[in-house]
Write a structure and sequence with these properties.
- There is one protein chain.
- The protein is built from 5 helices and 2 strands.
- With 153 residues, it is mainly α.
- The protein has a domain of 105 residues.
- The protein has a two-stranded antiparallel sheet.
């Protein structure tokens, strides 16, 4: 069990189980209930952990974290809609949303890495040629607001 002082009264709070990443879920629910966390760096280490020693263990750990984050994203404890009646600050909510949504960012990353290889293998370019009018209209739409901002500032 973990003991915390809140308004000079001691409460006993345990880990919230049922998730692979119970530490994220426990911290999120504590912040949603109004607890404040601080960074503490004592001279003598309080806790010592272990880190993966090879690539296989590291990949297994990252996969477990990603599955736990997606599990929290799809559960009722998702930071997008959970805890609005609590005392969770906006930046704390955004930090938890970033942590939970982070594994999904691998999908555009894979597309970003695979698409140039597909273009090279099929000898097709995904961006239209500049001689056609469509890219010029797009460039004009981007250039005009940027020029306006630069001239007005």
């Amino acid at each position: 069990m973990i003991f915390f002082a809140f308004d000079l009264v001691f409460f006993q709070i345990g880990w919230i189980y049922g998730s692979v990443t119970e530490d994220i879920l426990t911290g999120f629910k504590m912040h949603a209930r109004g607890w404040i966390s601080i960074y503490c760096m004592p001279l003598r280490p309080c806790f010592k952990g272990s880190a993966p020693i090879n690539l296989s263990d590291r990949l297994n750990q990252v996969l477990r974290w990603a599955l736990g984050s997606v599990e929290i994203l799809l559960s009722r404890h998702c930071p997008i809609w959970y805890g609005y009646n609590g005392r969770l600050k906006l930046l704390e909510r955004l930090a938890y949303i970033n942590t939970i949504v982070y594994p999904i960012t691998s999908i555009p990353l894979i597309a970003y890495c695979v698409l140039p290889a597909i273009c090279l293998l099929t000898n097709k370019f995904i961006i239209p040629e500049v001689s056609s009018p469509e890219p010029l209209a797009f460039i004009h739409r981007i250039r005009m607001p940027c020029t306006y901002v630069l001239l007005c500032s």
